[in-house]
């Protein structure tokens, strides 16, 4: 049965360093088992801190980066190279320093990409890229060993916002308009897609996240609190700092 674990670290820095170490080990294990690994990145401050911490970790060289597929859980729909794109952030913090295979870096299309400023077409294109990478004859999706998510103060994950149409979406990838977090137009994996990942890691640091994390863990509905609607097939892992864990009931803080 899938397990949910909650790990609370002293502060955001330690959380980022521990998540980085965990990620490197997970990728080494996935490659030992299957020869390759698939990760799904996100945006935001805690994600950037984790990418920088992976970059600083000597053990990162134990991963065969040429056999890692890199996907994104969501993207801010902006022109290629825009500093606010999640892709740009991840490339600068980590990806540009790794010997990755460029063909295995699967960024979501930018707003000046092949579909122009059409986020619906960009979402459909990304769904096609995912399907093309899936094992022939199986699902529409490749294997995701780890899918990382930040958690918003309102309980959003990826670009799935509370009470937004995206919280009900059943397609593989969807366009988002009117996001409460800038920029307003985005592309995101949907809840059913996120929930195919082997492990889903929800990462949050700081007191401003405490209410959202507490509500998600107390079982708020996925439409009201999207963070409560994501689960890994094998494991859901909450990686929190003490401030973000302030509203989590003590009985939920240990392994379940
Ligand atoms: O657009 C983005 O940045 C993300 O995809 C978003 O889902 C993010 O992960 C959370 O808002 C948490 O961000 P912070 O870690 O910066 O609070």
TrEMBL record:
Domain Glucosamine/galactosamine-6-phosphate isomerase, first and last residues per copy: 11-238
Catalytic activity from the UniProt record: 6-phospho-D-glucono-1,5-lactone + H2O = 6-phospho-D-gluconate + H(+)
The keyword Hydrolase is annotated on this UniProt entry: yes
Broad enzyme group: hydrolase
One BP annotation, GO: carbohydrate metabolic process
Functional pathway: Carbohydrate degradation; pentose phosphate pathway; D-ribulose 5-phosphate from D-glucose 6-phosphate (oxidative stage): step 2/3
Pfam families: Glucosamine_iso
Keyword terms of this UniProt record: Hydrolase
GO molecular function: 6-phosphogluconolactonase activity
Keyword Hydrolase (UniProt): yes
Function: Hydrolysis of 6-phosphogluconolactone to 6-phosphogluconate.
Protein name per UniProt: 6-phosphogluconolactonase
Organism of this sequence: Phytohabitans suffuscus
């Amino acid at each position: 049965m899938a397990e949910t674990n909650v790990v609370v670290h002293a502060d955001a820095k330690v959380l980022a360093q521990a998540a980085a170490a965990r990620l490197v080990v997970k990728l080494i294990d996935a490659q030992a088992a299957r020869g390759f690994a698939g990760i799904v990145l996100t945006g935001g401050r805690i994600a950037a801190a984790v990418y920088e911490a992976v970059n600083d970790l000597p053990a990162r060289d134990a991963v065969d980066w040429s056999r890692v597929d890199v996907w994104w859980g969501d993207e801010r729909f902006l022109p290629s190279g825009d500093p606010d794109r999640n892709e740009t952030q991840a490339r600068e913090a980590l990806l540009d320093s790794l010997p990755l295979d460029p063909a295995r870096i699967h960024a979501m299309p930018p707003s000046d990409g092949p579909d122009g400023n059409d986020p619906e077409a960009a979402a459909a294109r990304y769904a096609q890229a995912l399907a093309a990478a899936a094992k022939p004859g199986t699902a529409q999706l490749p294997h995701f060993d780890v899918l990382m998510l930040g958690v918003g103060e309102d309980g959003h994950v990826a670009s799935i916002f509370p009470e937004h149409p995206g919280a009900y979406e059943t397609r593989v990838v969807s366009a988002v308009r009117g996001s409460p977090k800038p920029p307003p137009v985005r592309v995101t994996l949907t809840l059913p897609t996120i929930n195919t990942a082997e492990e889903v890691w929800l990462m949050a640091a700081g007191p401003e996240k405490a209410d959202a994390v507490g509500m998600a863990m107390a079982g708020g509905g996925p439409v009201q609190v999207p963070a409560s609607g994501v689960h890994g097939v094998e494991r859901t892992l909450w990686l929190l700092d003490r401030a973000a864990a302030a509203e989590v009931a003590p009985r939920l803080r240990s392994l379940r």
